[in-house]
Amino acid sequence: MSTENRADALRAYIAEHPRSSFENNPWALMAAIEHFATTKSHMIIFRESKVRIARAALEAMPVKPKVILEFGTYVGNSALAWGAILRSLYGEDAAAQGCRVYTFELDPGMVCVAREFIQLAGLDDLVQVLEGPAAESLKTLYEEGKIARGGVDMVFFDHWEKYYLPDLLLCEDLRVFREGSLVIADNTDMPGAPRYLKHVRSGGGGGLGMVRYESKAFESTTQIGVPSIVEISTVLET
Ligand SMILES: C[S@@+](CC[C@H](N)C(=O)[O-])C[C@H]1O[C@@H](n2cnc3c(N)ncnc32)[C@H](O)[C@@H]1O
């Protein structure tokens, strides 16, 4: 099945349920998406077992996160999670308090599906999907002043692994991190992002003015029981 057909089938599956079961209930919508992705048609989403790991890290941050960047939206499953976590940390008026999730996606079809789901779950005031290459979207946000120096609390990498390191280096160049920001990356073991892992695990590029990290691998399991790593790096110095 093509990506587009799979997304249409997912949309149809969600539409079989009463809208009220998902309205203002992102966790229920994520559970339904994951059920579809597991039982109906294989989809590569950031699953609940991994969301739990990331959520614990976000909730343990000494300074509560407000601004999240996500590289790779797909159908919006993890974007829903980030919005739901910010809402649980800040309450219904999280957006008015400055909370934002900016999520980047290349595929226009996926952008539409993700926006529909985000709206259905009542998170459209918090979560914004930007269409196009993630690096370009990030530069635009920065130029527009929507992302400031030191203004990003968490970055999530879940697009194509070859872009993980260049896009992390772009975040470093734009100086969007603060001390304590988190960088979370999926699939660093499989398909694998060796250059990215080397960078964060060796503490960063080194040298004056470079971002320094402390990095740790968290093991989770996929739906077929295969171990899978989520790499969480904490910014020590900017
Ligand atoms: C593994 S999926 C993301 C899954 C998503 N985080 C979730 O949990 O539902 C990867 C997505 O990244 C997108 N992508 C890949 N490279 C990209 C880039 N350079 N900029 C923006 N999106 C990209 C792909 O089109 C695909 O939809």
Account of the protein in words:
It is a single chain. The chain is α/β, with parallel strands linked by helices and 238 residues long. The protein has one domain (46-237): Rossmann fold, CATH 3.40.50. Helix content is 42%, strand content 22%. It has helices spanning 3-15, 26-39, 48-59, 77-90, 108-120, 134-143, 164-173, 188-192, 194-201; strands spanning 67-71, 100-105, 127-131, 152-157, 177-186, 212-221, 227-237. It is globular and about 55 Å long. The mean pLDDT is 95.
Radius of gyration: 17 Å
Oligomer: single chain
The strand line-up of the biggest sheet is 3-2-1-4-5-7-6
Mean pLDDT: 95
Write the element-wise H/E pattern from the N-terminal end onward.
HHHEHEHEHEHEHHEE
Low-confidence stretches: none
Number of helices: 9
The CATH superfamily title: Vaccinia Virus protein VP39
- The proportion of residues in beta strands is 15-25%
Bound molecules: S-adenosylmethionine
Global morphology: globular
First CA to last CA: what distance?
A: 44 Å
Q: Tell how many strands the DSSP assignment holds.
A: 7
CATH class group = Alpha Beta
CATH topology: Rossmann fold
The appropriate CATH architecture is: 3-Layer(aba) Sandwich
| Biggest beta sheet attributes | 7 strands, mixed
Instruction: Indicate how many domains the architecture comprises.
Output: 1
Share of residues in helices:
40-55%
Which structural class is indicated by helix and strand composition?
A: alpha/beta
